[in-house]
Design a protein that fits this description.
It is built from 2 helices and 8 strands. It is α/β, with parallel strands linked by helices and 121 residues long.
């Protein structure tokens, strides 16, 4: 039996590394960390979890469900203040969608339309 002990990272393909670094580093405020790999990309850290952006000019940005973003593949993060998150996204002209379930959560698209869920804990 395989015994999983910790979730280490998620890799996300991005078509424009500069735009994605702005989104993850400035808009979401994630801490960029050093990486040793030679291919283009950037790594960010949230607690012990990492997001690895991998530059890929062939990245497709189609959503499976364009009406309900939360029904697409996505990463979910706990946040302290949903209203503050909404204001940050508005300040940076980021389109977002409130959770259709009525939960205190929203969904935002990165520059390649990868979905990020931000839910108030």
């Amino acid at each position: 039996m395989i015994q999983l002990t910790q979730f280490l990272h998620a890799a996300i393909a991005v078509s424009d590394l500069e735009k994605s670094e702005y989104f993850y580093g400035t808009v979401l405020g994630l801490q960029k960390i050093d990486r040793v790999l030679k291919f283009p990309g950037a790594w960010y850290e949230v607690g012990t979890f990492q997001i690895h952006l991998i530059a890929d000019s062939n990245q497709s940005s189609e959503l499976q469900n364009a009406q309900k973003w939360g029904r697409n593949r996505h990463l979910a993060f706990s946040i302290a203040d949903l209203e503050a998150a909404k204001q940050q996204l508005i300040t940076h002209d980021c389109e977002f969608q409130m959770s259709a379930s009525g939960r205190a959560a929203l969904f935002v698209k990165d520059p390649d339309h990868n979905i990020i869920e931000l839910g108030e804990a």
